[in-house]
Each structure stands twice: as C-alpha cells, then as structure tokens.
Amino acid sequence: MPRAKRDLVRANFYLQPNVVKGLRILAALKATTVSDLVRQALRQYVLDEMTKEKKHDADPAGIGLGAGSAGTAASDFSADN
Fold first, then answer.
1. Which helix or strand (DSSP H or E) is residue 48 part of?
2. Would you tell me how many other CB atoms lie within 10 Å of the CB of residue 77?
3. What are the two backbone dihedrals, phi and then psi, of residue 36, each rounded to the nearest 5 degrees?
4. pTM listed for this prediction
5. Model pLDDT for residues 11-64, shown as the tens digit of each residue
6. Which residues, including other chains, have CB under 8 Å from residue 4's CB and lie 6 or more apart?
7. Rounded Cα gap, residues 25 and 31, in angstroms
C-alpha cells in the first residue's frame, strides 16, 4: 500500500549517475519505485546509526526511534515500511 504524502517530507538529493542507474535497476527488479528504495535505505541507515550512537549516550527516542517515544515508533523505521 502506498504511503500517504502527508506522512512524508520532500527532500532533494544529488546522486552520482551510476547510483541512480543501480536504483532504477533494483526498483524494476523489486517492482517498486526508486523513491521507496531510497526511503527504505535511509530509514535503515538512521536506525542503525542511532542504535550505535545509543551506546555512546545518544538517545534515539529523542527523534522518535526508540520504543515508547512520543514520536514515530521504531517499527516505522523497519525495512517492511
């Protein structure tokens, strides 16, 4: 099911042509969009990095990544979303 646009914030990025080509190929193979692949990758990166930082006193819950936080649930950052 596609996400409602109200759940998203527009961001523009410059990427190397070979990265875009790879994303287009992967999107076609997975029957999804380049945008969805980028969202999935960035979501996972943020979760991984915040989890690492938590070991060094950063608080992922402060930006909605921790369980029970007032922001976005950690499950919203899983690869399934």
1. helix 34-54
2. 21
3. -65, -40
4. 0.63
5. 999 999 999 999 999 999 999 999 999 999 998 998 888 888 776 555 555 655
6. none
7. 10
Distance CA 50, CA 30 (A): 27
Contact 81, 42 (CB under 8 A): no
Report residue 32 as tokens: 């999804």
What is the per-residue burial (b if ≥16 Cβ within 10 Å, else e) of 28-62? eeeeeebeebbbbeebeeebeebeeeeeeeeebbe
C-alpha to C-alpha distance for 79 and 27, rounded to whole angstroms = 15
Which token pair is 42? 């960035």
